[in-house]
Amino acid sequence: xxxxxxxxxxxxxxxxxxxxxxxxxxxxxxxxxxxxxxxxxxxxxxxxxxxxxxxxxxxxxxxxxxxxxxxxxxxxxxxxxxxxxxxxxxxxxxxxxxxxxxxxxxxxxxxxxxxxxxxxxxxxxxxxxxxxxxxxxxxxxxxxxxxxxxxxxxxxxxxxxxxxxxxxxxxxxxxxxxxxxxxxxxxxxxxxxxxxxxxxxxxxxxxxxxxxxxxxxxxxxxxxxxxxxxxxxxxxxxxxxxxxxxxxxxxxxxxxxxxxxxxxxxxxxxxxxxxxxxxxxxxxxxxxxxxxxxxxxxxxxxxxxxxxxxxxxxxxxxxxxxxxxxxxxxxxxxxxxxxxxxxxxxxxxxxxxxxxxxxxxxxxxxxxxxxxxxxxxxxxxxxxxxxxxxxxxxxxxxxxxxxxxxxxxxxxxxxxxxxxxxxxxxxxxxxxxxxxxxxxxxxxxxxxxxxxxxxxx
Length: 457
Hints:
Blueprint lengths: L5 E8 L17 H8 L2 E3 L2 E2 L5 H10 L3 H4 L16 H7 L3 E6 L14 E4 L5 H5 L9 H10 L28 H15 L6 E10 L7 H8 L34 H31 L6 E7 L18 H4 E2 L1 E4 L10 E3 L3 E2 L3 H9 L13 H4 L10 E5 L6 E5 L3 E5 L6 E5 L15 H20 L1
Parallel strand pairs: 1-6, 1-7, 2-10, 3-11, 4-5, 4-6
Antiparallel strand pairs: 2-9, 3-8, 7-9, 12-13, 13-14, 14-15
Helix pairs in contact: 7-9, 8-9
């Protein structure tokens, strides 16, 4: 029986699956994650079934699909009362557990089973709107004021939490929240209980807006020729209320091309910044002599439309929003395949049983996910034939199903349907709903059965 390994879980926020150097993106630079893939497995069809922060993280920590963890939409301020969570299970199995960065739970100081949380949840709009002292609920805010001045705030760029406007970080780079997550993670590695294996979650808020990269990262991409986003033959082309400039969600409509280009450049810059700070954690593992003994998992909670089909942000079933990066790199003694790409459809609910198997912990009931380790070993195991995703979002509420080859979307408020061939049309530019009626009927029936089964529970 293997000794339970150390586990480093690197979680990012709003990172698109295609924004990795090794996956073939034409401009994004991620040299350290590229190296991680060279020693591990990447999942090319990993998804977030309810792609906004809160429901995505509920699936991650509970192993449940949206209907069962109870969060099929984005809603702050609802208590997190789950009988079992991933950090709780690992702590109970003897792991020293620590989270650094974004949790996005309620109340914000809820540990979810971690021994300790060093918290930064971003701009904390919910606490601000409700008149609460957000500084007391967020360790980074106080840390920044102690170092950059009593008046310093992460919002000093003047950017909104979901805006595509851009402004470089106004303070020294070492004070950026991305650097802070790496610094606090390194501090834990140096102070940990060395008689126990550790489970460290380094949870970066970026590349989620605000788009505030350090200036030299931004300039790197402003100087590049950036690819234009795909725009489908079905896409909307108007944004009469200029919602793209607000701090709120915008899901459709064109924005000023120059501003949109800066937004893409800033997003890529934030990704490269996170990649470089991740390497600081890798260097510490090497200095501690435990890099080759540590299980490393990199993922995101959901993606970002980034102008695809004239949409920004998330909550939609399209690839830019719902598909996530996932890399797993095993301890060297496990002798697992490397530079392997797995195309099976996996989801955030699969993380809990995967981490449990890594740690040698029995998977409790109920759990909807399945361990990914057989796939990483290259085993031919029965797997889910499709994934059902959804998000309540007013008129844009949506359901979708995919088997990695096709995707069907249904909008219950309008009755609109879409069908995409992901093999021939990975950017989802051609709606085939009227062209392939037999395939549309096939997926319509599958989605109907999924919804009926959920309602019967």
